[in-house]
Amino acid sequence: MSSANALAERPRVSTRPEIVRERTETQGKTVVEKPLSTLELLYNQAWLRKILILAVLALVWEAYGRYLDNDLLFPTFTSTLAAFFRGVADGTLPARAWGSVKVLLIGYGLGILLATLLTGLAMASRIGTDFLETMTSMLNPLPAIALLPLALIWFGLGNGSLVFVLVHSVTWAIALNTHSGFLSVSRTLKMVGRNYGLGGAGLIRKILIPAAFPSILTGLKVGWAFAWRTLIAAELVFGVSSGSGGLGWFIFENKNMLDIPNVFAGLLTVIIIGLIVENLIFQTIERHTIQRWGMQA
């Protein structure tokens, strides 16, 4: 009797009815993605959008120059292009541009090397971190152009002074961004590296640099921009180096001769070199590293 009562008190287990979904016929229709129109395909090309922006700026430049109608004050875009092609044809602009870029590469390379040493020292010890933070706080706000008088006394009128101010303008921007990128790396990644037996230079090379590379690349871009404008400003002040001078001295000479279209042609050369470096070199590095690793869309 007790067993019968126990069976009666046990809860009943209801079975869930099976649900069978029949395949519906699509009547021969298949779902496909909507193809993009030609205009949408063109709009998705970043290089084409940038060319369009440059074309609009050139039209605005031309319109404003024609409105003023004074080449001494603001030459038109067409007259600037004419002066630019004349300078390219007679070899003046390429020679001046190469003179500036050559000095820039030396200063930029030395600045990267010094920033690497300072950042490595900062990651290796606390005193190194304190030293980098102190030096960055002191020297990063100091304009490189303010060091020109000292550069002239120490290195004379020439490439040595230019390289000195370039190293100053490059080092602190790269070191600051690189160190900030290293500090932003999560502890989990660092622990993973140590679990694999990495330490010191191996940890920096295989864990910290890839994880902090967006900040490192930003520092390289900022350092390049600082170096480029510092070089042009330095050449405008004491410009003759290696006997002929660079683009800054070319601009200064033509300003003194009131050849304003040539002044704008020199400025246009500076802009073109900046666009080439940004869109061909830095974006290529970014595409093969940050975007490929999934750090950026």
UniProtKB/TrEMBL annotation:
* Protein name as catalogued: ABC transporter permease
Q: Does the keyword Transmembrane helix apply?
A: yes
Write out the similarity annotation: Belongs to the binding-protein-dependent transport system permease family.
**GO biological process: what's one of them?**
transmembrane transport
The lineage's top-level taxon is: Bacteria
Q: Transmembrane segments in this chain: where?
A: 101-125, 137-157, 232-252, 264-282
PANTHER family, per the entry: ABC TRANSPORTER PERMEASE PROTEIN, ALKANE SULFONATE ABC TRANSPORTER-RELATED, MEMBRANE SUBUNIT
- Predominant location: membrane
